[in-house]
């Protein structure tokens, strides 16, 4: 029988224990496994290469994204690094968004400076700039949509077709949307990457990543390299990730509803200069988002009118908005990208990407939306009267 997303998230791994009849799969903490006999290994021999707990969550995420398999890694950054290690050599080119997550930017740029490969940062919505970058015959085209933190939308189907004409592998970072709201493999991408730390886990208590493939040969290559360089996730983190995925859909839906309530409120605030959220009709990527997404998500950013002192005052008055990096948890987080998530980018690079010192990013959680609005209202009132 075919399974819908909600059923996949709940049922993978359930009732598979033949020894005790456990409904929930146990955690296999063993680092090593005995051989049946001389030169006769079992399915698992060492947990860096393979672990039964990790197997279940890898299968679950692959099914959610519509891939043939996945590799769960120690972090989102190790997942991206794994892809680059497996498929890029010195002199090869990767085309990446000019406004990508600061950690991705730092990784690509530092590896470029080291000579591991070449990176071209480009506005992927600028047809001419993208065409020039693709003319360099990249091995990988990396897409991040919606982008972090400005939620710019990239047409996955369009960019994938152009990239494939040059023989490139298309990698899509789907962290902001999750497989509930967007499925890049169905839109033409070859590989999907997530920071599982975020929505897939959803409770801000593990750090993990995942790479999902629709090509079995690429999956085999990535699995080999993951074992080789030792970036696979441990059993306990894999167990917590699987537990988080069980509630992925209700968490996403409630957080998205809350985000839309906050957007309506922020639109009434005179201190708000501009809001970045793809559901807004004036958002430059609104129509593409409607085409390729099944919702608009729970991430939003906005520009404040005022100086750093006003921003500090505003942030200091928030109670239910935690000033912290990361996103996708059940709790609402707010961050100042220029000094937090994107501090690793140079000031010039941030300016090129459009990340100003007045920009704030919110990861909306699943608290009561009216409590969140009241909290914002109080912070705006204090900031206005400072």
Automatic annotation (TrEMBL):
Write down the EC number: 2.5.1.48
Q: Which residues cross the membrane?
A: none
Q: Which residues carry this modification: N6-(pyridoxal phosphate)lysine?
A: 198
Q: Which SUPFAM superfamilies match?
A: PLP-dependent transferases (SSF53383)
Q: Which residues form the signal peptide?
A: none
Which Pfam families does the UniProt record give? Cys_Met_Meta_PP (PF01053)
Record key words, sorted: Pyridoxal phosphate, Transferase
Name of the molecule in the record? Cystathionine gamma-synthase
